[in-house]
Records
---
Amino acid sequence: MSPPFTIEAFLDVFAAYNAAIWPLQIVAYGLGAVAVAALFTPSRRVTQLALVSMAILLAFTGIGYHLLSFARINPIAPVFAGAFVLQAVLFVTSALRPGDLRLRLGRDLRSGTGLLAILYAVAIYPLVGIWAGHGMMAGPMFGVAPCPLTIFTIGMLLMAQGTWVIWQSVIPFLWSLIGLAAAIQLGIPEDLMMPAVGMILVGTLGTQAWRRRGSRRGPAAGHS
């Protein structure tokens, strides 16, 4: 199914949106830096601050972009806004409940992939957009647009632990699939990384759950 708008209308919305909220894009990079700092500072307070920072970015994108800007050309945009605000609420909830979600930078493939996703979202994504001819201020920008923010969120979740990681990953993964359709139909090459990291996140969580299940069954089998 084709989207109910053209690529020209899509980019026009971003150009108007970016101009209207400037210089909040700089603030968004600051909040992203706060979130990344939590990976290098094993403190509960810093983790709480990181989760709240991410929640602010998600809520702003949901309301500012989806509801107040994108809805002008896409009737489903209010649903997307609700999903991003819900994700923000989930992060705030985890910030208020110790142990629900912990951020940890490890020396493993999972953490390396997470860091790569974060680097892509904040630095490489806009460069690909410029290469594709969208320009810096006429396309999705980090922290205030859904797709680069989703890539960043998935990168953070790849380095998260706790009982809520799976539930926190549902909306970002679903959006990564929606973004794939838009990337193909509208020709947004910078979004093609999003489904890739989304699948890596799901595969990582699935493997982790399988190993935990096996470790629980192992001792039980030994006592049979």
---
Amino acid sequence: MSIDQDYRTVKKLLVVSVLLLLCTVGLVLVGVWTVFVQESPSHLLGRAPKKVVPAVLVTPRGDLAISEKTTIEIFERVAPSVVFITKLAVRHDPFRRNYTTIPKGTGSGFMWDRAGHIVTNYHVIQGGNAARVTLSDRSVWAAELVGYYDDKDLAVLRIDAPVEQLHPLAIGSSNDLVVGQHAFAIGNPFGLDHTLSTGVVSGLGREIPAITGRPIQGAIQTDAAINPGNSGGPLLDSAGRLIGINTQIFSPSGTSAGVGFAVPVDTVKRIVPQLIEHGRVIRAGLGVKVDEGAWSKRAGIKGALVLDVIPGSSAEKVGIKPTMLDRSTGQILLGDLIVSIDDKAIHEANDLFRVLDTHEVGQTVSVVILRGEKQIKFSIKLMPIEER
């Protein structure tokens, strides 16, 4: 074999060897890349690794409980009767020479009848120059004040809305309530319209102060949450009937702590018709003005001290004497001290209000007074006393 042939043979072998080496290196690189792609963390490659995610299984709920259905039915039926009340202040702008209305507070109320009368708490609209009422259909109506009775924290407004938009509440009673029965409150706490809270009647026969300081007797205590904005809204029983008007909460923080109070519906039924008819309340009274604490505490006496006697009143006719100034000496001569009515002890003015609140105009009561050291008994026919 010649030298040229040997050289060509060696050259072919070298070329083949280099090709085989390149193929081997290529295969190794492909294998390494494959392993790198499959095993490298997703944040290095810019894509998430493939995972098998199991399907979310939704467990069928089944039917609602009977109590839940009852609550839902009550809310859906009663909600159209509950309104949102905005108290307004009307102010004169001397620069623009016009009047503007400014919201001053909010509360709740409910429809009393198809004449457009709305019942709420007096403190909801107290201090305002005007008010507007928002119905459940979002329509807004200007409201006029029909009348109020601050001693029971009640007020009646009226809106001129079409009768088809008026849905009066069913009226219940409060004299047959029992502790433990379900109670439902609907209102607009913190401006959140048509909010439902549930609970029970926690107590009965409570006494709460009105904004005048006089007692509201027979108040209903409930643990159904009552917050600012709920005032004036209805407290309902499990039949969806009105049993009270949510009025106060007992809470140092000013928000619901599970102790709320409602004016009983039996009181509402007595007061509201009078406000609608007369714009004021006509209650039974003796025809006297009594001291509500200042003079009695100073003198250290117990009873309802008569400060004044209304001319022509029942009290004047039987000879009840008022507190007077002795002009010759400049001394105050204390009037008669009412200590008993119908054998119920009177220790202060609020006791007198409590007793008279249970009587009607025209009834005759037995009144015992102290005049100095002398005890005198009168029979007095209760007369109508008009109050705002």
---
Amino acid sequence: MVFSLVQKQDLPQVYALYQAAIADMYARGLDQWLWGRYPSEALLIDDVAAGRLYRMDVDGAMVAVFAVCVGEPWPEYDDVPWHYGVNPVALHRVALDPAHGGKGYAHAIMDFMKAKGRALGCDSLRVDTYSHNTKALKLFGATTVRTAGYFNLPTHPDRFICFESPLTDDCPLLPMRMHPAYRYGEMTPWGGNALGRLYGKPIPDPHTGEALEISCIPGLESADDVGETLPAHLTREGEALAGKGHAKPFPLLLKLLAADSNLSVQVHPGDDYALAHEGKLGKTEAWVILHAEEGAQLCYGLKEDVTTAMLAEALHTGGDVEPMLSFLPVTPGDVLYMPSGMVHAICGGVTLYEIQQSSDVTYRLWDYHRKNAQGQERPLHIQQSLDVVDPALRGLRTRLPEQKENGVHTVLSVPAFTLSCLNVNGTQTLPSCEYSFRMFTALAPLTLRWEGGKLALAAGESALLAAQSPQIEVDGNGQALISSAS
């Protein structure tokens, strides 16, 4: 088979091939194209003049025609959540002579497109087809890396499905809006509706406590706009997404958490204890207070005179632990760091951002002797808590910078993660971070922009920025929190 540019004198034969392909579509019940509207003679003449219309010949006969499009505006693609590349090549107007179907020629066109795209300096391939075109859906599903999304046209009742592939090893990975998994109901009896009320999140239950914004926790994985989970992306993209050494296991978990009533008093193990006893990472974490009702407070460590022996006696005898706890009032903008081994608890009336190691290991040290509807107290992890608690730990408390201080400000830098605050009043450029992914959470409506694309985030929405990311600018007025692996 031979690929070459269509010449002006070829156009009558090209028109006939397109009309034969359209007749075959109609015979299969497809109204994807209408000759004269799309494609049209005028469009194909423009394709030839621009040098983007190609033909495939087999044994001297034209069997297919298609357009190779680079650097052209394609408005229908603007809102598709593409994941690959800032300089794509797009395949459009593929017409295969029905008499030559089933011979592998469509796959050959895809191979040609990828090679041609690389030769033209493109970093990615994009293509779409009508949602009822089963042959094309099967072809593009088999010859591209992922389904990217869809768009609608006013001329068709159903959507067009988009597919994409990277073409180069250094293809930029574009920001992805992440949709959270939720902990709710019996999992979070202390939860409420604040995540819906404050941020418009589609909470599944009136007692929703946690939105796991960016998560690889099994059964609670976050997903992109087309429903592909973060673990699926990591399996395919590895360190290009996560950064060197951060793909397996993915090291961090980002949550938004809202408490209507007090959580249990907890302590988390460090990595060594957790790996030895749970087969998982330990947990250090930090909180940023987003909303606090009047008088809201947190449990933040033990009082200075409390020893492990005193704590053990109270726990083993069913005594009252609450007098041993240190509480402090909080207001929006407070930042609190909890290393492993530090006693802590979120109290009612607080909504916060939580960045932590990617672990679901939590030891419940105390629960105020509360009982459920069946009259049962929640189980405690007394021995594990006593094994890992450090009564002397007091954590670290600071505050977010004032919004008028433009730029990216490091708020915490600890062994497990770095937490920064972006203040933007207009436009700010994000510095690159090639060693790690970044988790970007908008606290006000903000728009991420990069060459050829953008992503608008509402307050409370999070995006995952890959280590192999393009240069990103942020537009708007407000703050964002940015976490990365250390």
